[in-house]
Amino acid sequence: MVLVQLRYNFRLYPDTAQREALARSFGCARVVFNDGLRLRQQAREAGEEYVSDGELSRRLITEAKSTPERVWLGEVSSAMLQQALADLNAAYRNFFASISGKRKGRKLALPRFRSRKDNRQAIRFTKNSRFKVLDNGRLRLPKIGDLAVRWSRALPSDPSSVAVIKDAAGRYFASFVVQAAEEEVLPPVGSEVGIDLGLTHFAVLSDGTKVTAPKFLRRAARKLKRLQQDLSRKINGSNRRKKAVVQVARAHARVADTRRDWQHKLSTTLIRENQAVYVEDLCVVGLGRTRLAKSVHDAGWAGFTGMLEYKAARYGRTFGRVDRFFPSTRMCSDCGRINDKMALNVRAWDCPCGSDHDRDVNAARNIKAAGQADFNDRGAQVRPGLVPAPRGEAVTHPDAACSTRSVEGISVH
């Protein structure tokens, strides 16, 4: 039996006393993290040895509780404080792996101090802390209480950990990580699809289907502009400014939730209806520095392809990325001829072989062919044994599913 790691997010509704307890927990975890970071920085500046993980735990948690300056650390769960140091240790390990070349991707910087002014706060509890999901549906956290949870689905197994998150909009979420048996593999189908991602059309499929870009951020721009203008008129440090900040954050959260919900539905439909899905490996970071940056970030290509990847691994489908330098747009999908570069306003072109091409459909067909060739060269598919827990597995916002009917030729419901 293969086990996969899944993450489920649910909305929390703490009462006034529980909010105060959570605020204390956020503050204590932040202080312990900053104390550990400061201690290691001081040791490095003094030329001393790297402070070990066990030494940090002993000095900053066990011994610190007996000092007048940190006696209030005893008011919160010690397991949560240990997890704060575990986050610091993971940040250092990732940094060392990055500079040594063991970690691929962009170089990571040293961990930074956490601020109490950050809009997002989080703490994590493991099984050692003895958190529990009660029979009445409430979540019991040590030294916090029984929190009301809005369950949108049942957990497949007992969670191994839970993170309590407060976002910029003032909402509370419980993020459970569970180890679940691999779901039943979907029955095989004969269709495969290549996907060309874009801005006018969010996705163009190799069979000619075009999915219109919803442009959630653009559609909410008028409301966001008005809220930002109201925020700019408030005096710094005033209570009205704090309320205005929350209103702006809620508007952005609504956009993000709606986009995530729509992408989940579309990605699930594509995985269920196709045995293999191939996409182009776009450099989203680079495109985010161009004049199209706002539209690129509004599209959310990276999040969508991430959904396709982990859902394909979970349901027994094939997922492939085509190299970003592959000339999918300029290559004729019929004869293979590579033509000169074309401007973005050229949406259709004719090949000397006599073929008439829609720019995006032709690119999607080339992506499909390249993905199939690459998959055949690599041989039989080897399914991964562990699927990373995707962030935002479940969307529980009551209005997150609005405005999802902007699809041409494909149903996402």
Automatic annotation (TrEMBL):
Family stated for the protein in its record: In the C-terminal section; belongs to the transposase 35 family.
UniProt organism field: Actinoplanes friuliensis DSM 7358
Segments traversing the membrane: none
Presence of the UniProt keyword Ribosomal protein in the record: no
Entry's Gene Ontology BP terms: DNA recombination; transposition
Stretches assigned to the Cas12f1-like TNB domain: 301-367
Residue ranges of every copy of the Transposase putative helix-turn-helix domain listed in the record: 1-48
The protein's name in its UniProt record: Transposase, IS605 OrfB family protein
Entry keyword set: DNA recombination, DNA-binding, Metal-binding, Transposition, Zinc
Single GO molecular function: metal ion binding
Domain Probable transposase IS891/IS1136/IS1341: 176-287
